[in-house]
Amino acid sequence: MLVAPTDHDAVCHASAWDLDNGNDPRIKQCVEANEEQLATLHHELGHIYYYLMYKNVRPVFKGGAHDGFHEAIGDTIVLSMTPDYLKAKGLVDSVAVSDEAVINQQMKLALDKIAFLPFGKLIDEWRWKVFSGEIGPEQYNSGWWALRESYQGIESAVERTEDDFDPGAKYHIPGNTPYTRYFLSHVMQFQFHRALCDAAGYEGPLHNCSIYNSEAAGDALGAMLAMGASKPWPEAMEALTGQRRMDADAIIDYFQPLMTWLNEQNAGRQCGW
Fold first, then answer.
1. Which among 57, 61, 83, 137 is placed 20 to 30 Å from 48, CA to CA?
2. Catalytic residue from among 71, 193, 195, 254
3. Which of 173, 160, 169, 161 is nearest to 129 (CA)?
4. Is residue 14 annotated as a catalytic residue, yes or no?
């Protein structure tokens, strides 16, 4: 399902499905022609190609090396959608070349990728505290906002009580879907991107790298995907990156221009809450 049905209601939250043991993979998404949906579609395609690449392993090993791997693959590819790539594919007419354009592009992405990290961390922390009983029914909403203030530095714009259930507004909570996978994927996608750029022989700022048309990068990624869960995840990580641990240094490498600019803008200021 790629278009919202007109004759009945449907859950349009995007997802990918491995039907018939890798022989009939499908995407459920109500696609619209915009930038966000293009990235979402590639995220779901990341799941699809993972299904296809590990279809020949034993059934017990059909899955990501760990859950974060599955969520990182499509987003890794999106990082190669540089302005030059988008122009080459006819999706934009021209590419602005200036320091300001780089900062604007990086800030836009950071408001998605970096701002997500504390939120991605707290979702499962709230769920785990509910499961353990540390947060009881009488604290579901206040416990939620305590975590949001602690990790994100935000509070509700209006007064909330335990008659409200704000956690339920996040799809994955009523859907009982573990969320740490997304937090981990936001670390690993930059680590994967750096490794694939190295495999492609790219030299230059990481944020400008696109692995488009690189068979070497494709082979490296495909080899890791084909492993599925047949090896412990550090071995899958090592096969692609040469590292056995998840490493957030690649995030710093990628956003170096923005970090330099922010340090200049915030010189002498105390940031935090």
1. 83
2. 71
3. 173
4. yes
Average pLDDT, the chain: 96
C-beta of residue 115 within 8 angstroms of C-beta of residue 251:
no
172 part of the active site: yes
Choosing from 4, 10, 13, 35, the catalytic residue is 13
Is the C-alpha dihedral spanning 257, 258, 259, 262 positive or negative? Answer: positive
| pLDDT tens digit sequence for 246-257 | 999 999 999 999
| pLDDT tens digits, 187-208 | 999 999 999 999 999 999 999 9
Are the beta carbons of 236 and 220 closer than 8 angstroms? no
Look up 182 and say whether it is catalytic. yes
Catalytic residue status for 47? yes
**Encoded amino acid at 140, one letter:** Y
Catalytic residue of the set 16, 43, 186, 220? 43
Q: Which of the following is catalytic: 16, 182, 220, 236?
A: 182
CA distances from 91 to 33, 120, 156, 178, 272 (A): 11, 30, 38, 35, 38
- State yes or no: is 44 an active-site residue: yes
Architecture of domain 34-266: Orthogonal Bundle (1.10)
Reported confidence tier of residue 272, pLDDT bands at 50, 70, 90: confident
Burial degree of 40 (CB within 10 A; 0-12, 13-18, 19+): buried
In angstroms, rounded to a whole number, what is the distance separating the alpha carbons of residues 84 and 142? 46
